[in-house]
Every structure is written in structure tokens, then in C-alpha cells.
């Protein structure tokens, strides 16, 4: 399973920017990988583990802004289609992925 985090946080004031950096560092410290600037994902072994991860995000989210969470299976995650300007063979885009825990 994968826990996907999507967020849109304000960066108008110094306090907002500090909260943004703190939240982003929290995600990285807890094993999230950045897919896009405001999209992060983390591998979870089962639904119990994903619930713990999501509860941890709820406790550490900034006061302002929007944070969204979604849990998807590995099969669903493997069907993500990468659309880029030029053909690029560096992406592994198949159902058969090696995951070493």
C-alpha cells in the first residue's frame, strides 16, 4: 500500500513559510518520497500501518492550508502513467517492481 499526501500550504508570511518547511521536513524524515512539489508518498505494509502514518500526519499538519491523504494499493500505484515532453526510458513503468524492505 502507498500513502499519498497532497498539500497546498500558504507561503505569504514568514510564519507560513516556516510551517511549510517544518511540514516538508517532517514528511522527509518519516520516509516520504517527493513525487512532485506538493505530492509525497510512502510505502506502508498494511492498512494498520497506513492508519498510523495518517494519524501522524494529522498530528503534525500546519494550522493553515490544505493537506489531503489517500491510500492506494501497489497495483494501483504501478498504473501511474508518466507523461513527459520527450520519450524517456529512465522510468520503470510496469506492475513487476522490486521492493526491498
Task: Trace the largest sheet across and list its strands.
Answer: 2-3-1-4
Percent range for helical residues? 25-40%
Q: Give, in order, the helices and strands.
A: EHEEHEH
How many discrete structural domains? 1
Radius of gyration: 15 Å
State the separation between the terminal residues, measured CA to CA. Answer: 13 Å
Low-pLDDT ranges: none
CATH architecture: 2-Layer Sandwich
Pick out its properties:
101 residues; Alpha-Beta Plaits; globular; alpha+beta; four-stranded antiparallel β-sheet
Overview of the molecule:
The chain is an alpha+beta fold and 101 residues long. The chain has one domain (2-78): Alpha-Beta Plaits (2-Layer Sandwich), CATH 3.30.70. The chain is 35% helix and 23% strand. The protein has 3 helices and 4 strands; from the N terminus they run βαββαβα. A 4-stranded antiparallel β-sheet has the order 2-3-1-4. The protein is globular, with a radius of gyration of 15 Å. The model has no long low-confidence stretch (mean pLDDT 88).
Give a short synopsis of this structure.
The chain is an alpha+beta fold. It has three helices and four strands; from the N terminus they run βαββαβα.
SSE diagram, text form:
Elements: E1 2-8, H1 14-29, E2 33-36, E3 39-43, H2 47-60, E4 66-72, H3 74-78
Antiparallel strand pairs: 1-3, 1-4, 2-3
Amino acid at each position: 500500500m502507498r500513502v499519498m499526501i497532497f498539500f497546498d500550504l500558504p507561503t505569504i508570511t514568514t510564519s507560513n513559510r516556516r510551517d511549510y518547511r517544518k511540514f516538508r521536513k517532517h514528511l522527509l524524515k518519516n520516509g516520504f518520497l517527493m513525487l512532485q512539489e506538493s505530492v509525497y508518498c510512502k510505502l506502508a505494509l498494511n492498512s494498520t500501518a497506513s492508519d498510523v502514518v495518517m494519524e501522524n500526519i494529522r498530528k503534525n499538519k500546519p494550522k493553515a492550508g490544505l493537506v489531503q491523504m489517500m491510500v492506494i494499493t501497489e497495483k494501483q500505484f504501478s498504473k501511474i502513467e508518466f507523461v513527459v515532453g520527450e520519450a524517456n526510458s529512465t522510468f520503470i513503468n510496469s506492475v513487476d517492481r522490486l521492493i526491498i524492505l
